[in-house]
Write the structure tokens for this entry.
Amino acid sequence: MKPFTYSRANEERAAVKEIAASKGAKFIAGGTNLLDLMKMNVMQPAHLVDITHLGMKAIEENQAGGLRLGALVTNADTAYHPLVEQRYPLLSHAILAGASAQLRNKATDGGNLLQRTRCDYFYDTQTACNKREPGTGCSAIKGYNRNLAILGTSEYCIATYPSDMAVALAALEAKVNVTGPDGDRVIPMGDFHRLPGDTPHIDTNLQENELITSIDLPAKGFADHYAYVKVRDRASYAFALVSVAAGLELDGDTIKEARVALGGVAQKPWRLPEAEAMLQGQQASKENFGKVAAAYLQGAKGYGDNDFKIELAKRAIVRALLLATEMEGKS
Amino acid sequence: MSTNQIGKPTNRVDGRAKVTGEAKYAAEFHVPDLAHGVVVNSAIAKGKIKKIDTSKAMAVEGVFKVITHENRKDYACYDKDFKDMDAPPGSPFRPLYNGNILFNMQPVALVVAETLELARYAATLVEVAYEEEAHETDFEANRGEAYVPEKYNSTTPPKPWGNPEEALAKADVKVEVEYAHPTEHHNPMEMHATVAVWEENGKLTVYDKIQGVENTLQYITSSFGLPKEKVHVLSPFVGGAFGSGLRPQYQSFLAVLAALELKRPVRVMLTRPQMFSFGHRPRTTQRFALGASKDGKLEALIQDVFAETSTFEDYSEDVVIWPGLLYKCDNMKFSHKLVALDEYTPLDMRAPGGTTGIFALESAVDELAYKLGMDPLVFRLKNYTDKDQNNDLPFSSKELRACYIQGAEKFGWEQRSKEPRSMRNGHQLVGWGVAHGAWEAQQAKASAKAVLTTDGKLTISSATADIGTGTYTVMTQIAAETLGLPLEDVTFKLGDTSLPFAPLEGGSKTVSTVGSAVKKVCEKIGEKLLRLAQQQANSPLKDAELKDVTFTDGRLHLKSDTAKAVSFKEIMQLGQREQLEEEVSSKPSEEQKKFARFAHSVAFVEVKVDEDLGAIQVSRIVTAIAGGRIINPKTAKSQIMGAAVWGIGVALEEESVMDNNYGRFMNHDLEKYHVPVNADVHDIDVIFVEEQDTIVNALGAKGLGEIGIVSIAPAIVNAVFHATGKRIRHLPIKLDKLL
């Protein structure tokens, strides 16, 4: 680990000011990913601004009739919060499908949005990786890529963004509230993460020196018909090969609204609103779900070891939508 | 001699020390002025170091030295000086010997600094320029170059018998298939570590993670040319080893190198990724050809093995001995070839050769049974062998039939539905599978010492190891039983080269080997006590012989009359003895050579496979073990359960992934290299069947360290076939293979 300096911020504005003043500085909260990356010498921030003493630790109702999750609320506190369990069980399930109890106790909601890929090459500084060191090349494309992306890849990078929580947030159309040197702004979940293109080292649209302050959940939580299906190589403590967050609004057997987001397949949670719209007014049936699944995976590309994910993702979408349908919901 | 300590489920005598942190592992011996060494590993698999620039690392304040092949002190230069007790034939790897790179992640420098953090940081500043050469790490691509080694470090493959080709050609039903087992790396909880303490008088104390302190002592003294009396090796606790600690690993050599050079204590601990830089279970491919008559008699079996080794040592393991031990067949033939790759030499891993060989054998037999339309268990019974056909010897004992019967009953095998893909539970396909296995029950030479003091306390010692298996506990039980003492009056010492010699703890032979020495030395003390008692005037035991007396609760009395008794204390006081001391060696009996000595197991497994998504759950395991006399049913059960969990990993999860572009194993941490987690483990039932064996050793106990793993993976593979109708011949069965 490269030596670094450390300071603790007590207030949001001060935190932003401090990070802007020091080149190569990073915020640190739970540290469940950043500290590992520093120990592995994958990231070498010269300065850390500890934000754990800022507020941002509450879950409360927002003006839109939804919930606001403070950026520093832990993943565990979010998953087990009564209002989240009641109104956004999809989010609870997604969070609890990830990591371990110990990590969820430490990891924060804001930090979860910023966790980095788990690509083997990104973590091994003896190999080439465009995300870690732009311009060195991508080892994964011709190397071991079982757990890497099949959608939205580029010739420069096929990494995935590994979060479970964010897949549910994408399906729920959450919004990320940030503050920075130029003031506050709101980034919809769909725009938060970036596809690699020719700048795979930039994971998100959060600007340098911006701080995530909270996440807004809209009023609609799909609490009656939802499913989070995570397919992985062991029953716990493994990143998704493919995951699906699904939410349905049903009128009898007829679908009023459908949401589907995929995890483990791209550098961002994958949503295709036009494919979701195919279900509007349709019967909730395996056949119709299959069509949506096919639409989601159109244009997917495998790189050898991960070819199977294309078929697996289709099946997981169908499974998730069937589970959501079969739930004994109110409608 | 009857306190019934043997056979009693007993808590670990070191359990409290372990959970309170009082038990110290190699890296935990903190001494004043301890310096910390961090290893720099190579980025290439083959070539030469062109230049190694340590100036930036040396410029970091607090860095004492960066040791490389260019500036290291002299050490021995002959292969023989680097041959440890477990070295396979060849030229052992010598850390920092020269600039040649033989495998990826080879140690190329050791950075020694005041703190671990500084050393770790400075290690990132060491710049190495390489002259790269083309490497060969692709096993399949190199199979054409496979060779028969000059010498096997495992059993030489048995000579063929009968006429296998002809019998195969004539057989009614045939299976000719190939199975592949991947490379697996060792991931015990404790990573390899050594603390080498240099003292002013030139003495060296080495705390090492090792499965036998004698091996470190021999290796260190011969490679550095040090006199044995100057080096003291200790290893009181080992946090799991499973074979990874049989050979002294490079951190041990480097810690000593740095300590001698800097004349101060040095600690070197490997990181988890560095656990992927040395020995591993070799990738192994096996071709099986089996032929049977219509009624299910095995007529022919041919097994051809291709296994990975390094370019500098010929490692081999017992992959081909199992068919001749497990199936009666008049025509069998075997071959075992090696494929040399630019990787580190493979290393024994729990049931080396058995895990790989029995997986393939038991899968092939299952295929044959299905082809015959026979219950796989019935096939095994029909082709049961009472003889080790490899050596034409009878078994000292073999209660495998009892394992079948008791295991099948507990599992409910009778209710098995015959057809594959015929049982389901919602969207899960349910399958049942069975497999059996064997593991050697060896005894080696060992010594032990006993000291009985006037307070009635007994201390037994032997330089063996406890790698988490329960050696401390079972040796305490054996001694307590033999001399009729309560457990708390017995202390067992191990892991110290100042103690009497014991061989490496490996091959499931420690209870047999060290346990026999412990029993013998306690019997010697017993004899001494009796003789001493008889010297006293009016001794109630005057005319007794050893067979006439019993030791109970620290007393010696006549079997025929418990009132005729003397306490140990009295005996020693009257005899004016401060303590009684004995040291003995024990060795296997000549009688043993006339028998094949093996433990046996059977596993019945239920799996549930998600029909659409391929996810596999091992919902139930019943395993029955014939392991001779069970000294401690509690630690024994833990051993077998742990092995079963590992078996799940072998079947479904473990795989070291080689990137042939780099010649480097890429999934080198526990997030990426999967072993089972709690959620993967469901019901595991362990049955020990009654087995009497007077041949294996004086205790009648067979080892249990390895027998628990061998039959699990094939039973899972067979259950997956039964569930899905898909035969997966390439481990691990990850879910994509079932889509």
